[in-house]
UniProtKB/TrEMBL annotation:
Organism of this sequence: Candidatus Woesebacteria bacterium GW2011_GWA2_44_33
Keywords: DNA-directed RNA polymerase, Nucleotidyltransferase, Transcription, Transferase
Name of the protein described by the UniProt record: DNA-directed RNA polymerase subunit alpha
All copies of domain DNA-directed RNA polymerase RpoA/D/Rpb3-type, residue ranges: 1-181
InterPro entries referenced in this protein's UniProt entry, alphabetically: DNA-dir_RNA_pol_insert, DNA-dir_RNA_pol_RpoA/D/Rpb3, DNA-dir_RpoA, RBP11-like, RNAP_asu_C, RNApol_insert_sf
Catalytic activity annotation: RNA(n) + a ribonucleoside 5'-triphosphate = RNA(n+1) + diphosphate
Keyword flag Transferase: yes
Enzyme class: transferase
Record-stated family: Belongs to the RNA polymerase alpha chain family.
Amino acid sequence: MTSLPGAAVTTVRIAGIRHQFSSLKGMKEDVVEFLLNLKKVRFSYSGEKAVKATLSVKSAGEVKAKDIKIPASVTIANPELVLATLNKGAKLEAEMEIEAGAGYSPAEDRIGGPIGTVPLDASFSPIQRVNYKVEETRVGRFTNFDKLILEVWTDGTITPKEATVSAAKILVSYFNQIVSPKKVEKKEAKEDVDIIGPVGKLSVEEIGLPTRVANALVKAGYETVEELVKAKKEDLVKVRNVGEKSIKIITVALVEKGVKFGE
């Protein structure tokens, strides 16, 4: 049930407000309470991209969900939900984004927007509550059967029956991966130079090796880091003027550059 898709407000900009802990002159509720009420509005929308909606109220009284101006592709399941109460002379203007999704999306995922944009935690699931119980039941003469009773409450954007059917289809798709698993082709390994990155193009004289060791490696044909990491230690030991002590120095120099033998 938690995987069922839905829609919710994900970001809000309120005119005259820089952050959620502010207050709006003439509004009975503080901004935090208004945002909590806004999160309760249940939308029906299945588009791939976020859509914008606006709220502009300049008269005293209750501000309700039905006052939100939404695109034709969006509907509100609870239009009578009270969002705020305005006093005489007060006005409330806000712009919000509505997105389709599944599950729960924390506000932290949307931090970093323009100043004044408040990210909201979004609960996309249309399911409000689920309960189940198992009772003994009789089928013909047999009494050793069980009956499963599901109780499902939704937000009105989908019926309990539709929700149950959709959830069952999701389960079937999961189990189909076991019955008929899809083959995933293994990706071919990238060329060594791609794995090593730009470091592989450095010459052995640029990685801080003693001059004697660097010269010995160049004479033996190991001119770049790429060529060096491909080499085996037992082969390097055979190089003139490169012994076990030099191998340790080379290893440390490579590690400092983020690579090692065998990459």
